[in-house]
Design goal:
The protein is of the alpha/beta class. The strands form 4 sheets. An 8-stranded mixed beta sheet has the order 1-10-7-8-5-2-3-4, sandwiched between helices. Strands 6-11 form a two-stranded antiparallel ribbon. Strands 9-14 form a two-stranded antiparallel sheet. The model has no long low-confidence stretch (mean pLDDT 90).
């Protein structure tokens, strides 16, 4: 008998572990949360998102803290913003921490993953829900949708959201906004980790994870945090510890192409670290080009690809006394 084809295994995983946000009513999730005794923290990593972070916090607070009481806290981790991000988040009702001020004895690195790793020191939830701060077209059902598998199935450790994410170009499709996903992440998974090929949007910024699992993972300080968490969860607990939920539609600010190049570099470095091709590298020099009157001129960008150790291995300052 032939072994199952990878695509057969992927289809079987998708059938078991793909859900829609409407699969659970809010009342059912509240009952499941009460029965389990789980506490839930919403974490919003943010950098220069003063225009949108207040709306994200306000809508979730009103619906899921003050009304439904599905969340215990909303925490914004400000990554060295130069605009009014921190004030906008605080005015909207979030607890705000500057990433650089959390455990300053451990130093600080710029990046989304750094903010998420640092959040483990200032949140109390048994379950962490992560949402980006730059959402423009979304709804509060994102949060209960992500919590559905975690509150109702103890074998699930990490949940990824997916959604229509259009790119504003002629003839663009519903998922074309995920350029790094389609050009980098998906081919990488097909080559190195085909067990994860059934994930619709492996780089989605909306996801949820159990604290004990996230605290056991090495965390890239930059944009590779989402893909690294998937790969490491797969290795530690198997594919069935991962689920995904269709959240509908999402819109946000798109990155410039050169910035996507840096993001792609971080993702490639995280996978290379996990396949043993690169180890111990914290910075990669990326050569990009700009057009000037003199022609194509190289521009060197230092891309941070370092990682934080598992949170559970970090000794608290008082423990060293």
């Amino acid at each position: 008998m032939n072994a199952p084809r990878p695509d057969d295994a992927t289809s079987a995983w998708s059938a078991r572990r793909t859900h829609h946000w409407q699969d659970w009513s809010l009342d059912a999730l509240l009952a499941a949360r009460e029965a389990s005794g789980a506490t839930v923290s919403l974490v919003v990593p943010a950098r220069n998102e003063a225009a949108t972070v207040g709306d994200v916090v306000t809508r979730v607070r009103e619906r899921l803290v003050e009304t439904a009481r599905l969340l215990d806290e909303i925490v914004v981790i400000d990554s060295d913003s130069t605009d009014g991000t921190a004030q906008a988040a605080a005015d909207a009702g979030a607890v705000v921490h500057a990433a650089a001020d959390i455990r300053p004895d451990l130093g600080w690195a710029p990046g989304k993953g750094e903010a998420m790793w640092k959040s483990l020191f200032v949140t109390r939830g048994d379950v962490l829900v992560f949402m980006d701060a730059d959402l423009r077209e979304w709804d509060t059902h994102f949060v209960p949708g992500l919590l559905g598998p975690l509150l109702t199935d103890p074998t699930v450790g990490l949940v990824k959201g997916f959604y229509e994410r259009p790119l504003d170009v002629e003839g663009g499709g519903p998922f074309d906004g995920g350029r790094v996903t389609e050009l980098v992440a998906r081919p990488l998974l097909a080559l190195a980790f085909p067990e994860l090929a059934g994930l619709v949007q492996p780089l989605a910024g909306e996801w949820a994870v159990r604290r004990d699992l996230f605290g056991s993972l090495s965390v890239p300080t930059g944009y590779a945090v989402e893909l690294a968490a998937l790969v490491d969860t797969l290795r530690a607990r198997g594919a069935d510890a991962i689920a995904q939920v269709d959240l509908g539609r999402r819109s946000h600010r798109h990155q410039a192409l050169a910035d996507l190049g840096a993001m792609a570099t971080q993702i490639l470095a995280a996978v290379a670290r996990r396949t043993g091709e690169v180890a111990g590298v914290d910075t990669i020099s990326l050569r990009q080009f700009v057009r000037t009157e003199a022609g194509a001129v190289p521009h060197l960008r230092d891309v941070a690809v370092g990682e934080r150790p598992p949170h559970r291995t970090v000794v608290a300052p008082e423990e060293t006394a």
